[in-house]
Structure formats: C-alpha cells, structure tokens
Write a structure and sequence with these properties.
The complex is a heterodimer of chains A (186) and B (278).
Chain A lengths: L4 E4 L4 H6 L5 E10 L2 H12 L12 E3 L27 H6 L4 E4 L5 H10 L2 E4 L5 H5 L2 E8 L8 E15 L6 H9 L4
Parallel strand pairs in A: 1-2, 2-3, 3-4, 4-5
Antiparallel strand pairs in A: 2-7, 5-7, 6-7
Chain B lengths: L1 E3 L1 H17 L3 H13 L3 H20 L11 E7 L2 E3 L3 H15 L22 E7 L4 E5 L4 H4 L3 E5 L4 H16 L7 E8 L2 H12 L10 H15 L14 E9 L6 E8 L6 E4 L1
Parallel strand pairs in B: 1-3, 2-4, 7-8
Antiparallel strand pairs in B: 2-5, 5-10, 6-9, 7-9
Classes of the chains: A alpha/beta (186), B alpha/beta (278).
The complex binds iron/sulfur cluster.
Iron/sulfur cluster sits at the interface of chains B and A.
Chain lengths: 186, 278
Amino acid sequence: MTEPIRITLPLSDADVLSLKAGDKVLISGVMYTARDAAHKRLIELLDRGEKLPFDIKGQIVYYVGPTPAKPGAIIGSAGPTTSGRMDAYTPRLLDLGLKGMVGKGARSKEVLDAMNRNKAVYLAAVGGAAALIARSIKKAEIIAYEDLGPEAIRRLEVVDFPAIVVNDASGGDLFKQGVEKYRRVA
Amino acid sequence: MKKVLSSEITKAVRALCISAACNLEPDVAGALRTSLAREQSPLGRDVLSQIITNFEIADKESLPMCQDTGIAVFFIEVGRLVELDGSLEDAVNEGVRQGYKDGYLRKSVCHPLKRVNTGDNTPAIIHTTIVEGDRVKIKIAPKGAGSENMSALKMLKPAEGVNGIKAFVLDTVRSAGGNPCPPIVVGVGIGGSFEKSAILAKKALLRSIGSKHTDAEVAALEAELLKSINDLGIGPMGFGGVVTALAVHIETYPCHIASLPVAINIQCHAGRHKEAVL
Ligand code: SF4
C-alpha cells in the first residue's frame, strides 16, 4: 500500500487537482462539521440573503454528529455519517467555494457535477471507526446551532485525519473503479 | 412465581446500552479479524485494519466504537413464572435513559415529522415474548441509521420463489454500496406476514456470526447468498474488494398460500448485540 499524502487546509485548486480517486490522505488544519439539520439551516440563511456562520472558501465540511465528550475529553467518538443525505444542499455550498466534503457512501450526479465545475474533492473516512478518528481531532468548538446537539456546527482542528479520496475533480470515482476491479459477476 | 424488580431491569438495561456501544462481541470481532486475511484489495485491508484498531481502542478506553450509538432495540423473553412489580416498558426506557446519559452515548431519537430530538434516546423499540421458565432474558441490538436505512421489504409473488428472493437480496446489497459501512451482516426474513418478515430479518442479525440455519436447505441458501454478495466487489466501505459481507442469516416462518414476504435488514460492521439474564 502506498504511503498517504499529507494535505493542509484550506485547499487551493492546485491541492484539489493533485488528488486522485483512491489516494489515501492525512488531513491537517481546520474543518467544519455539519449534518442534515445544520445544512438545512445554512441553506435557509442563504435563501434569506444572510452570511454563513463561517467562511466556506477553500474549506472542508465533515459530515459527523459526535457522541458527547467525556469529562476532560476534546470530543466523543466522531466517525462519518452517510453523505447522500446532504446531496440536496451540497451543490449550493460548492458554488460558494467549498472545496471538499468528508463523509461515507456515494454522492448524486448533481453533487459530482458541482464538484467538477468548482474543482472540489469528496473524501470518505472509514465509517464506524469513530474512536480512532477522534484521536486526530485536537480541538473542537461549537460555532453555531448549539441547540442541535450532535448536529451543531463545530470547528475542528485536526492533525493527520485519515481519509480516502473517493471522487476527484476530474471525474475519478473510487466506488466505480474499486468495485469493477473486484466484481466477479456480470 | 419469581419476582423480578423494575429496578433490576433498569440496571441491567443501563449496563447493556453502555457495553453494547463500547465492547464489540467476540463473534463480530473475530469475523472481522479473519476477514483481513481474505481481503485481496490493499485499500480494503487498510479499511479493515482501521475497523479492527477502532474496536480495540473502544473496548480498552470504554468509548463508543461508532458515534451513531443507535436507536435501542430490544428482544425480551419473559418467563411465564415471572412476576414483575411494574411496567416492563417503563423499566427498559428508564435503563436506556440512564445508559445513554451515563455512558456519554449519542441521543439519536426524534419525532418522525417534527424532527425534534427526544433528548434521552427513548423510546426504545421493545419486542417481548412470553416463554417457559422464571427468567427474564434481555437482548439489546442498538441500530445505527446508516445500515438500517439500506434495509428493504417486498411482498414477492409466490411464483418468484427462491430466485426472486436471491435477486431481491443482491439488488438491495448492490444499491446500498458503501452506505451501510461494509463489511455487513445481512439478515433475511422469509415468510410470515408483512411485519413478521421484518422482525425475522432483525432477529436473524442477532444470531452469532457464521452460525448456520438448522434447516440444511436454508443453510445452503445462506452460503450461496454470502458468496454471491461477496462476488459483487463492493468491499470494505464500498472501496472495492471481496469482503462485502461477513455473514448472511436467514429466518423463515410459514406464510399465506398467496404471499411471499421477504425482508432484508442490513447490519454494519459495528454489529452490536449483548444479552443479560435476570
Ligand atoms: S452504519 Fe454502523 S458503523 Fe456505519 S456509521 Fe452507522 S452505526 Fe456506525
């Protein structure tokens, strides 16, 4: 297995274009969490012509709703949730400069098209590897929608957060390529 | 009659919620470990290694292995000689309330339409049966949404038969892809009625991984489906590979002459299940 590529946030177009489907990466820097309920509110803000609670340019959104932190801990277990539930909201955020998403599972054609047009990347973290992934989170702070509990928007500082490139900006798709390689039926 | 106190049930349920979330049962842990040698894809092996390291950390540090600590599903057997001093449902829900709070587990239950969180992960889903004896057996199977959402139920025509069942299972697993966090366990309920088939499918997931059905014909179908699913190439997390499912468990029940209900319940690799007997 090849060594993982280290990337630092925020991402530039050149960073994104250097990533290929199937690459293992270790992400460091700041990323923001959001799930279904937070996405719904972000889009409502945009509909009202208001500003988002964080600067989305060059950023990565991580689809996660962590468990409560134990006393003294930075965060609880924090693995990815299914990305498809955010498909309806994602193209709008990509058009505003969002450069990447981390989740699990496949994306819709609309999202892939929006990624293509905006040079963005979709990564997956290993679903269910939540205690392991939490170790790469060095700081966590709620910055919006505290009332949503696990679904609140958090600003995370991560070091060597493990992920895999699923969809790159030039149409590469690990789900398609990987499955084709190992499929033994018609 | 044997008295079983509500407080004892609550205490047992509280402990079950926490240990189910943090300590993976040996059957699932073992199946994941052996799958590592079978996986041909390097990336797939990498994913499996992360999954194994993760449940080891969770076990050692008493952390939830997955952030989705699920909706709490129970199968409870109450011996007919047991005398309870209060509502079984209330005692179980109180245990869930305490377990999810004290164990720092995620509260993931909300009103279906208003989408407002109930705040304490109740109500639990409770299936109760009355059995012989004087014990209360409580099985918990907390279920995350990622895999539960990929489940399906279909009322097949009897003429579609076994081939129809196979096609339905394969289609369901194929379209789920990486969403339910493969490697998965596939529970299939065949027969009964609309709701019975779904309960059978869920119950099938509680069987120890790799256990065969007692009916040789059903056991053969389990083995055949497992092979066909692993031939789909989905692999760990859907990144491609030969380890897509760890097991297929089927449960059957007689059904109406004019129907063939089939339910498929998908379980992710965080196959949490625990049991306590009072
Ligand atoms: S499908 Fe299972 S392992 Fe994956 S995120 Fe949900 S509960 Fe966790």
